[in-house]
Amino acid sequence: MIDFNDTTEGREAMMRASSWYWATAMGIKLLGDTRFTLKNCLYMGKIMDDDSRFVVVMKGTQARITTAFMLRSIHCLKYGLYPQGVIYYFPSRDAVEDFSKTRFTPLINDNPCIKKHLKSTDSVFVKKVNKAFLTLKGATATKNIKGRKKDSMAVRSTPADEAILDERDLFDQAIVDMIPDRLLNSKFKRIVNLGSPTIPDFGISKCFDESDQKFSLIKCEGCGGWTNLALEFPNSVKYKRATTHEEYAPFFACVKCDKQIDPFSGDFVAKYPGREHSGYHVPHLITPYCEVQMVMDRWAEAQADGSKLGTFYNSILGLPYIPAEDRLTHSDVYACCGGDVMRTELSIGETAAGVDIGKAYHTVLIGNKVDDKRGKVIYACRVKGYDKVYDLFIKYNVKSGVVCLRPYEEEFGKFQAKCSLKDIQVYGSEYNPSHKQKSYMKTDEKAGIYTLHRTQAFDRSHSWVKNQQVEFPRRCEEVDVLVEQLCNSAKVLEEDERTGDRIYRYIKVGSGEDHYRSALNYFQIALTCLTHWQGLSAVGGKMSVGDSYNPLEWGL
Hints:
By secondary structure, the protein is of the alpha/beta class. Helices cover 30% and strands 24% of the residues.
């Protein structure tokens, strides 16, 4: 307990106003027989006091952020600040059960000052604190509507004043989009996103990028300069030894004068003050139990073994990381832009097209085959309706097209048959939802459909761009959109919770719009078919001269 030099009324008012003040004053007991304190972690107090409608915390490992927000939730309900309660979301039900058993239940049992305010319920995942509820939920999709739209009863069923999403990168975005609806009847409508980052432009990293981006800056007592330990790592670490007989030991240092600095003395400074979303970056480097020697040992391991770099950046620096070979960059794609503008006149030579079908618009790439490995896009656009796509096929003399089969299979069948009347070979394409498919592509000749291994298809287009084997038109507004969408996919390694299988797959990052990327995948296939349509031979070609070709029978 703390001896406050204040009146009883004053202390009570402070405890009601500040969750960290309340937790400190009540001596809240935590795991490991420790008590809540802000010693060497003042950042927790600043974050817990933030009453912004949208809060984001991008953190390294063992930053105590989950503890901070669990205590803040209990505090708000104890003092009746949130009459509709708080929902604390985890990525899965298993994560909820683990947290309830190892963290939440011990917190209640070890603190009578909390336990006395809890009313009994029939669930270990729902606690009534005075008159409102603190609910722990796993935000897992429980059903697919018509095989596409994801839904979750766990997300649908409970209203609240604040929703907290812990380990944001592990959530299904379709379920995340449902969570704000739980707050529509609240005057607060507060949403908190927490978690360690994985890759850039995704999950907590994307949330933080959209915030005011507050970083912990440490002022040097020697030169007055400011240092960000994480962003300026490893230059923020120096070595010294007390005597010539001792080994050199690492320490956190000012990047301007090399003087030793205190990692716990930082102040949060916003990179973009004034933004609605309040974001905090909390690397492991500023947490109470950080050991500089351990950090440098881990860094040396990561330097020697590149596969460990991602974990180091995510867990220690609290920063997103992705190897250069796992995501296209804007410079990668712009390097493929040639000097020719978009072609607007009728095309005399035969061309190929890749089309991604969307609900708002259809994304089209049309181009020529340069040689067996290279292709050239002569036109890129987004249009509405199959009729507009057909008009483009006629205008640009498309003879080989690969078009996304879904979500309008019936309309695709009509489009396919219509194209066949003009001697345009059109195949439908879909990605196999299972990773069990071994081959890159399976072909249903009778239906005129390709089934693609999605990861392999993205790998191929990735290499095509990286190796500058495809040329895009000169930079313009539409090419800028194309570039952005080609970069909105990143390759990650995931583990299947049920089977334990570890598989690589591409996920959507950035804005999530990746229609041009799929169109490029299809265009790459269409070019191969175009070669055989002209009666030539090439490795990887699907058809050969003399093959039967009767698209009027496909899908009809």
